[in-house]
Amino acid sequence: MTSTSSSAAAAERTKRIIHTAAALIIGDEILNGKTTDSNSAYFAKFCFSLGINLKRIEVIADDESEIVEAVRRMSEKYDFVVTSGGIGPTHDDITYESIAKAFGLKLKLHEDALRRMKKLSKPHPSQPNFSYDVPSPALEAKLRMLRLPIDPERDEESQVLFVDEGLWVPINVVNGNIHILPGVPRLFTQLLDGLKPRLLPRITDPEGKGIYRLMISTPKAESAVAAYLTELAAKVEPRGIKVGSYPRWGKGRNTVTLVGRDKAYMDSLIPEVELNVDGVKVDREDEADHLNPVDLES
Fold first, then answer.
1. How far apart are CA 48 and CA 210, in angstroms?
2. What is the per-residue DSSP string for 54-97?
3. What backbone torsions phi and psi does residue 258 show, to the nearest 5 degrees?
4. CB neighbours (10 Å) of residue 66?
5. Residue 186 and residue 193 in contact, taking contact as beta carbons nearer than 8 Å
6. Which residues have a Cβ under 8 Å from the Cβ of 259 and sit 6 or more positions away?
7. What whole-number percentage of the chain has pLDDT above 70?
8. Are strands 80-84 and 20-26 parallel, antiparallel or unpaired?
9. Which of 7, 36, 125, 277 is at 20 to 30 A from 174, Cα to Cα?
């Protein structure tokens, strides 16, 4: 594919309707247990609230070859992809350069991001003499966070999004659908929330109402309701509804869920499901824990 056709394909990805999503969590610290990943859970809830079908979450190391392979594959397969982590100032923060390599792009110092950094970033107490005007290792480390993969054949404003005026950190959009976010949970969630208004026109539920989740709390063991749930799943699958069963160890009750978009039809099933699992509809999983508490077996 030529550079021009690649750019055209990337431009198309920025406008297509978003049906599917994936998250790529990047960081040795996640894989070695030093840091607990919370960003994927937040992203899952974010997608669910917008009716976006989250199809995949991967956790990989700070390894160039793995990042290159993963972003190429995810960009091709899913409509909306986010990455988390690896965009800091140190040597092991290699997400920008790896994604640039994946799509044959060069890194470019983004001047507007630098201007915002100067305005919004406070000097660290350990660097009282730091200056943006004097070359230093500290300055080079900061600039490392501002060198972004940019496609010169496309509008730069569509590739670097400033979605929160209180943050200098941009969301770098590569190949039209790879959205590069920081791994720091506070920044990840703030930027993702800031991106939401730009996504709403591109999702099938433009009001952002998302998918409906119906929960039935049951005192029965999963094995006791398995046969009925198998029949129910086959019955509702043609209408795009998924049936799930989730054990709640030590709580005395389990949870049956129906997830889909056809709220009226799902609500009509409540009496049937309650009867067959001896359950009750709840808004929270623990809402009926005081009813018939028993020690459940699977």
1. 6
2. EEEEEEE-S-HHHHHHHHHHHHHH-SEEEEES--SSSTT--HHH
3. -125, 130
4. 15
5. no
6. 211, 212, 213, 214, 241, 242, 244
7. 95
8. parallel
9. 36
Residues 6+ apart with CB under 8 A from 41: none
Which whole number is the average pLDDT over 194-217? 85
pLDDT value of residue 3: 65
Asked if 218 and 279 count as a contact pair (C-beta separation under 8 A), the reply is: yes
Express each pLDDT in 61-91 by its tens digit. Answer: 999 999 999 999 999 999 999 999 999 999 9
Longest dimension (CA), the chain: 74
- Both tokens of 219, joined, read 């005192």
Q: Residue 168: left if φ>0, alpha if ψ -120 to 50, beta else—which one?
A: alpha
Distances (CA, A) of 154 to 10, 104, 160, 267: 9, 14, 11, 47
Of 205, 216, 241, the residue nearest 49 (C-alpha): 205
The reported pTM is 0.83
The burial of 79, by beta-carbon neighbours within 10 Å (0-12 exposed, 13-18 middle, 19 or more buried), is given as buried
Inter-helix orientation angle 185-199/39-50, to 10°: 20
243-288 pLDDT, tens digit per residue, is 999 998 888 899 999 999 899 999 999 999 999 999 999 999 888 8
The answer to whether 167 and 190 have CB atoms below 8 angstroms apart is: yes
> Burial code of 166-185, b = ≥16 C-beta within 10 A, e = fewer?
ebbbbbbbbbbbbbbbbbbb
Q: How far apart are CA 118 and CA 222, in angstroms?
A: 57
The string of DSSP codes covering 117-172 is HHHHPPPPTT-TT--TTS--HHHHHHHHTTEEEE-TTS-GGGTEE---TT----EE
H-run or E-run covering 242: strand 242-246
